[in-house]
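re: ur question from earlier - yeah i can do the single chain one, its not a big deal. heres the input i used so u can compare w yours
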Amino acid sequence: MSRFGDLGGKLYRGEASYDFVGRRRLWYGVTLLLVVVSLAGLGIRGLFMGIEFQGGAVFTTPPAVEMSAEEARETALETSGNEARVQELGNGALRIQVTGLDTEQSERTRTALADELGLETQKLDTELVGPSWGDQMSSKAIQGLAVFIVLVSIYLAVAFEWRMAVGAMVALMHDLIVTIGVYAIVGFEVTPGTVVGILTILSYSLYDTVVVFDKVKEKTQGVLKQNRHTYGELANLGINATVVRSVNTSVVALLPVAALLFIGTGLLGGGMLKDISLSLFIGLTAGTFSSIFIATPVLVDLRLREPEIKAHDRRVLAKRAKGGTDGTDGESAEETDDTRETVPDARSGGDGAGGVPAPAASAAGAPASGGPAPQRPRPPASRGGRGRGRPSGRRR
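and the output i got, formated as tokens:
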């Protein structure tokens, strides 16, 4: 077995443990930093929405054209007055995207690009997208995201509890903000493929969070019936039991996504493949972090506000301080006292109900109280049969 697999087995069995819950303030700080940086990038740079959302025109040149991306960008800017985004495709063609163009501006830009390339206008493929269709796409995407979040919240509140639903939604918002923030900071284009990828990673993040919550629920189910561990310690055991599984699942999912992103995009060019794989790669990484370091710590903080959980944890910590460093000595002492109360002494004459049965009197008549045993009478000497006994008056 590999070292990582052996570590996973130890974490699952509780033989090794990392204090994820105890260090939750550190994870909150990291989360807050990521969210602030993402929101700052979103506010300063904004999102570059594709033509599907803003409207505009896309010009695709024939393969192996003698025009650089910079020349195409300058030509489109001089003609239309708008910034153009130029992408080199795998076959040597150029994909020139200019947002905010109407039909007349699109025709002028197409003619200028064709003249610069020395081609006929008809040989330059043009796709025109109206702004009204982009508005419909934006509204549908927002509606779909809102419905998704509401339905998931209801399911988690019914299947688990409302505190777990809150923890899952906090982790979900983290994934969403970080993914959008990376798009804004780096300047990636937002397309319908991006929306599909974001919805996919939100589903994956929730799946991973639900797996962790299921184990946490199992570990903390009888928390008030024991005095050995606090609620936070039992929840931490649940995270440790699933952390290796979460990491393995994420790595296995990221490998094909990375292949699509770095290999497929490089060989096949851009398009929907790049848009989906890019959002998946960012979101899967953020989702793995949030399901381990955010969701359960938020759940623990919410549960620690309950009076019964507070009282239980105080009892556990007080007993631990009194009986030992890890609560073992205190628990053993309590179990010993309980045993002495429930198991009767054999010398008390009890009948052994619920404890050790009292010893029964021996067949010889020995009393259970332990006095001296009476002398057993000797059996009378047997008088033999005919003529074998000594006659009383016989002379020698």
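Residues 231-268 form the longest helix (38 residues). not sure if urs matches, ping me
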